[in-house]
Write a structure and sequence with these properties.
Elements: H1 2-15, E1 31-32, E2 38-40, E3 43-47, E4 64-68, E5 71-80, E6 93-100, E7 105-112, E8 117-126, E9 129-136, E10 149-154, H2 156-159, E11 163-166, E12 169-172, E13 181-184, E14 198-201, E15 205-212, E16 221-233, E17 243-248, E18 255-264, E19 275-277, E20 282-283, E21 290-296, E22 305-310, E23 316-319, E24 325-330, E25 333-339, E26 347-353, E27 356-357, E28 361-363, H3 373-383, E29 388-391, E30 394-397, E31 406-407, E32 412-413, E33 419-420, E34 450-451, H4 452-469, E35 476-479, E36 484-487, H5 495-514, E37 520-522, H6 526-529, E38 553-554, E39 557-558, E40 565-567, H7 572-589, H8 594-612, H9 629-644, H10 647-662, H11 664-673, H12 680-701, H13 718-734, H14 742-751, E41 794-796, E42 800-802, H15 811-814, H16 818-835
Parallel strand pairs: 20-28, 29-36, 31-40
Antiparallel strand pairs: 1-2, 2-3, 3-4, 4-5, 5-10, 6-7, 7-8, 8-9, 9-18, 10-17, 11-12, 11-15, 13-14, 15-16, 16-17, 16-18, 19-21, 21-25, 22-23, 22-26, 24-25, 26-27, 26-28, 29-30, 32-33, 34-37, 35-36, 37-40, 38-39, 41-42
Helix pairs in contact: 3-16, 4-5, 4-7, 4-16, 5-7, 5-8, 7-8, 7-9, 9-10, 9-11, 10-11, 11-12, 11-13, 13-14, 13-16
């Protein structure tokens, strides 16, 4: 009760004051540090340290950002053109950023080119506050009057169950959006609606001074302004919207037209709780075992790091280990490490550091044996397009996209990195139905498109795993004739074979329908693209007939133009990638579905001959038109060689090797796969590249405490770690005297909890504590799909590693994609075999 009474007194004091934010003598001042952001005790204010990186538009990583007590609770402080802008709404372009460390000022210049209008956002430290000024050389353009305003977006999950004050008025942040809307003549294209009138949210509250979370110093932020501030709930417009504080810029003014004073609550006594990074899955007895403690740099406490073994009575018995060693600093934290590889006794263990104790994990010979099962049993069945998928009492989705697909419009750039060129490269006219594409394939990610590049990557990956590790697990019934899947119900056929067949059907359908591989099949508009829930409801399942009226249905056709678009501009890279996928599938399908295997092989060889006899088609856009041409051609040659053993493909592999060697790290797995079918000189010629890779790997492993590559782009790096670990495994298998197995186990540990920021497993349902709030197609339920792999740790520049378990809509941290799921199946099985001493 003492803490409750103190909190109530604090609220009462705040309610009685509407004065402008003031600095008291006892409060610590913010400093502009050497990394270019404002820093105080338990507080950081970033001023355009990050910028929209062009990856699917607004990723909530930009502008003025606030980190309090280890959580980034505010972002996108910038001039925007609506109160609650959507993901694809206009954003000012970054012109330049200047940091004056001595004066404590960061000035950022931005520009809306379409309106020939430029503005400056000046951030200046003033004691424990940051003063934000919007400075104009020219007034707000007439077209933007009343629209341009300074916005600061607040992470909803950070303010759930919290209150706010607007001058003397009070309120609480809603868990679910329920604020008022007003009708508008124009519908916001980013609203996720394609029908009905326009609507925009009205403010929840307004005033000149806001105090967010007055009852909680960990989230308390005070904002005052010389202009009115309004608080909005962006989730009325879209589920991934945020709370927004906004001041409209005054018209017909230049110079400093708006000033905000922002004061995040500092706390000189706060220390971030230590994180004990470790594998939630556990470790093999003879494998490497590293625990890494991540510490606030101001935390000078050094309690012992203990390894505890659990007995049947619940007692936690300390186990002797080597000493804890300082690793040093990485990003913003200090690290200690414990190597307990010498502990080999099977059992249940925990780690303890001061008051922090981990969840239990195993040391066991079979620790990796079933780590791939959730991905096989749940994730890939749920991802199957053109099927209804049922799990006991639960229907995951219906038979979706029976109306696939319409020819995409000419010269059209889609919001999700697809583009149609100046011709269709098919016999179909723009908007015309292309029959035969409504079969096979997987939803690419947390959305529902079929990205061909992902499809053939997955087919190759699953085929490799099935072939190498003889995966015959059968827990899923797949009935292609009925287009129906039952999870957790065996049907007498290996699941891996059925998944490979499902991907093969879509790849073949593309060649049968238009004669070449296509970029993919994707929703035509924002409203469909942002759909959440059962994909069967995205379309009516009936091919569009322009002769019918909207909503009219006749003879199995519909007047509703909701069919997905097929982007079909020719790309030789996609053709070669699909050849590789089809050729790999043949080896798994033989003896299980010989007719499909024969179709796949005939198509792969026919398209290879076509491509080899003509100049390549080099159309390229985004990440949907295949990888580098030489790499895709090399993969096709290798897979055809493995399947047919024909000398023509061996000759092509040899001829392409000099080009492949230049990008060896990206192609090493494919290069190794060819070794058994090539002359001995091929393997010998690879050795210099392998030695270079190993030297680079050793250097990279020293760059951070986790001994794997950690990326710093807008999409986090689990995929990079998977690729690195699988490359290491392939090279260890082929060159054991040069490359050891440790990199594979470091990658396994990283994916399952040994990483910065937290100790959670990035594979949902794998490990004691794993991702349970992720960006799957059920993200609106704040839920997960077992076996899905999320991107993981996103580094907010310059030094803040982040992964949210409380907000699924960070796609760069939390979105499942199918290639990573397939790679996880490979990696888990590789680790299982290596831990048992087999290859």
């Amino acid at each position: 009760m003492k803490r409750l009474r103190a909190s109530c007194v604090g609220i009462a004091l705040l309610l009685s004051s509407t004065a402008a934010i003031a600095q008291t003598p006892s409060e610590p001042a913010l400093q502009l540090n050497e990394k270019g952001y404002f820093e105080g005790p338990a507080v950081n204010v970033l001023a355009f340290s990050n910028w929209y990186d062009g990856l699917f538009a607004d990723a909530k990583i930009s502008g003025i950002e606030i980190i309090q007590q280890g959580m980034r609770s505010a972002t996108n402080g910038d001039v925007r053109l609506s109160a609650t802008p959507g993901q694809w709404d206009a954003i000012g372009a970054l012109v330049g950023r200047k940091v004056d460390a001595k004066a404590g000022v960061v000035e950022t210049t931005l520009r809306y080119a379409a309106h020939d209008w430029q503005y400056v956002i000046r951030a200046e430290r003033r004691g424990g506050t940051v003063e934000l000024s919007i400075i104009l050389d020219k007034p707000v353009p007439q077209a933007l009057a009343g629209k341009a305003g300074f916005n600061l977006e607040l992470l909803p999950s950070a303010y759930f169950h919290h209150a706010y004050m607007a001058d003397e008025r009070t309120g609480t942040f809603p868990i679910y959006p329920a604020s008022a809307m007003e009708m508008r003549a124009e519908r916001n294209a980013a609203s996720g609606r394609s029908e009905g009138p326009g609507a925009e949210p009205l403010p929840m509250a307004s005033g000149r001074r806001f105090v967010l979370a007055p009852e909680d110093p960990a989230r308390r932020i005070s904002v005052s302004s010389d202009q009115p501030i309004a608080l909005y709930d962006g989730r009325n417009q879209a589920q991934n919207g945020w709370f927004v504080l906004r001041s409209v810029l005054p018209a017909n003014k230049t110079g400093t037209v708006l000033q905000w004073t922002v004061k995040p609550q500092a706390d000189p006594d706060w220390l971030r709780t230590p994180v004990i990074a470790h594998s939630q899955l556990g470790y093999a007895p003879d494998g490497p075992k590293i625990a890494t403690v991540e510490l606030d740099r101001n935390d000078k406490r050094r309690p012992p790091l203990k390894l505890l073994r659990l007995d049947a009575n619940g007692a936690a018995v300390p186990v002797a280990t080597g000493p804890v060693k300082p690793w040093g600093d990485y990003l913003r934290y200090h690290y200690l490490q414990l190597d307990f590889s010498a502990v080999k006794q099977p059992g249940l263990y925990m780690l303890e550091y001061g008051d922090v104790r981990t969840a239990p994990f195993r040391i066991a010979q079979d620790v990796y044996a079933d780590a791939w099962h959730p991905t096989n049993d749940v994730y890939f069945p749920v991802a199957m397009d053109h099927m209804s998928v049922n799990e006991a009492y639960r229907s995951w989705h219906g038979d979706s996209h029976r109306d696939d697909a319409r020819q995409a419009p000419l010269n059209h750039e889609h919001i999700d990195l697809y583009r149609q060129g100046p011709t269709t490269d098919t016999r179909f006219k723009p908007g015309e139905h292309i029959p035969g594409l409504n079969v096979g394939g997987w939803y690419d990610a947390g959305d529902f498109d079929i990205r061909t590049q992902s499809q053939y990557q997955v087919v190759r990956s699953l085929a490799d795993a099935a072939e190498r590790y003889r995966l015959d697990r059968d827990t899923v019934s797949v009935d292609q004739a009925r287009r129906h899947v039952e999870m957790h119900v065996p049907d007498g056929k290996p699941d891996m074979v059925q998944q490979v067949a499902h991907g093969t059907l879509q790849l073949l359908a593309q060649f049968d329908a238009v004669g070449h591989a296509i970029h993919g099949i994707v929703e035509p508009d924002v409203a469909q693209y942002t759909h959440l829930g059962d994909a069967v409801n995205k379309t009516d399942g009936l091919p569009y007939d322009p002769a019918l009226k909207p909503g009219e249905v006749r003879n199995g056709r519909s007047g509703t133009p909701d069919d997905r678009w097929a982007f079909t501009s020719k790309s030789s890279a996609l053709n070669y990638g699909s050849i590789a996928g089809l050729a790999a599938a043949v080896r798994v399908l033989r003896g299980q579905d010989d007719a499909l295997a024969q179709r796949a092989l005939e198509t792969a060889e026919r398209v290879w001959q076509q491509e080899q006899g003509q100049a390549p088609d080099l159309f390229s856009h985004g990440n949907t038109t295949g990888g580098p041409l030489d790499a895709e051609m090399f993969a096709a040659a290798v897979e055809l060689l493995r399947t047919t053993r024909k000398p023509v493909y061996a000759a092509k592999v040899q001829a392409l090797w000099p080009a492949i060697e230049k990008g060896f790290g990206f192609n090493a797995q494919t290069a190794v796969a060819a070794i058994p079918y090539m002359p001995a000189s091929y393997r010998t010629g690879m050795i210099p590249a392998v030695r270079r890779w190993q030297a680079q790997s050793v250097e990279m492993a020293r760059a951070n405490p986790f001994a794997v590559p950690i990326t710093t782009g807008g999409w986090a790096g689990s995929g990079t770690v998977l690729g690195y670990a699988l490359t290491a495994e392939a090279l260890h298998r082929a060159f054991p005297d040069i490359v050891g197995p440790d990199a594979l186990f470091h990658g396994m540990a990283f994916l399952t909890g040994h990483h910065p920021a937290s100790d959670i497993s990035f594979v949902s349902g794998v490990g004691t504590m794993s991702k349970e709030v992720a960006y799957g197609n059920n993200r609106a339920d704040f839920s997960f799909i077992a076996g899905g792999v999320v991107p993981g740790i996103l580094v907010i520049k310059p030094d803040f590693p982040e992964n949210h378990e409380d907000w699924p809509y960070f796609w760069g941290q939390n979105e499942y994609v199918i290639p990573e799921g397939a790679a996880w199946i490979e990696l888990a099985n590789a680790a299982n075999h290596l831990s048992k001493g087999t290859q």
